[in-house]
Amino acid sequence: MADTTALIRQNRRINRLSSDGLRRSSVIVHQECRAVLQEVRPYLVDPTQAELLLGFLRGISATLQPINVAQVAQLSPLRYPGGKTWLVPEIKAWMRSLQKRPRTLVEPFAGGAIAGLSIAAERLVDEVILIERDPAVAALWELIIRGTELEADELFQKILHFDMTTEAVDAALSAYATSLPMKAFATIVKNRVNRGGILAPGASRMKAGENGKGLKSRWYPETLVKRMRMIRSFRHRLQAISGDAFDLFPMMREEPDTAWFVDPPYTASGKSAGNRLYAFNVIDHDQLFAEMSRCAGPVMMTYDDAPEVRAMAQEYGFAVKQVPMKTTHHEVKNELLLIKA
Asked: 305 in helix, strand or coil?
């Protein structure tokens, strides 16, 4: 009789909950995940938490799948060796996960600046500071971000009306740059005609190129101008600094409202790929880790997965996350994200 009464009460409770949209479901749970299920249980009965849970699951799914660079929107006009287009979703997720929204994001090795541009475009911070040591690349960012309308239009017209021939390229790259638009134009041309967008001295030019188009393979003038106009539309949230980031670290690292995304264009392992990819390819990685460990604000660093990097991360107290990414050649490789809260 007691068992019957208990069953009747249970059925009544289930019917009452059903009228509120709640349904009883059976789930198979591994014993290691039982505690997690208990934590999630209150959210499962609250209809207002459905979007939150869905977003959480999508975030988990994204970390388990290689990120395809072809599926991430392009903002930068530069083709950059080692560019972090593939990492943009990870950077955004990290920024949104921070307990306190940073006021500033600093990208001390800007390069193609896809990370800083993406964060600024989506207003995840009030200001993004791009620091670039290579004067050719710095000139381009200075024009796009700080240049006058007259200077910007001069660059855009040069790009739109440029006849991409060997002779024209030779003339553009050998001409003495007497103005900011000329310096920026030379950077764009060199970046577009060199193999892989490499700007380092001695880099070779494309020959056959895509579908036999030669130097014109990577020359999309309308697209380039469109991207630069887009960046100028939110340039009030951008600041470009030409110089060595190591000189600026002591002046900026004390700000707790400043976050850092650090992608040094130099390898810390013995491979030394940076020697052939970048004009400035030597830094003290141990010093970089030390500087970032002293930052008052949150830090994300990205490196090749190498024993030297893992050792420095452990020494300076960075959490290590391995992220799979799919290259433009559809090869899956792992890189490391190093996080300091």
From this structure: coil
* Domain definitions of the chain by residue range: 28-64, 68-340
Q: Measured between alpha carbons, how far is 88 from 327 in angstroms, rounded to an integer?
A: 14
Residue type, 234: F
CATH class of 68-340: alpha beta
Q: Which residues pair with 319 in a beta bridge?
A: 339
Q: What is the DSSP letter of 82?
A: T
Phi and psi torsions of 208, nearest 5°: -70, -40
pTM: 0.72
What DSSP character marks residue 73?
-
Please report the beta strands in 208-297, taking only residues with DSSP state E, as ranges in sequence order. 238-242, 258-262
d(CA 244, CA 232): 24
Per-residue pLDDT reduced to its tens digit, 272-330: 444 444 444 568 899 999 999 999 999 999 998 889 999 999 999 999 998 877 655 56
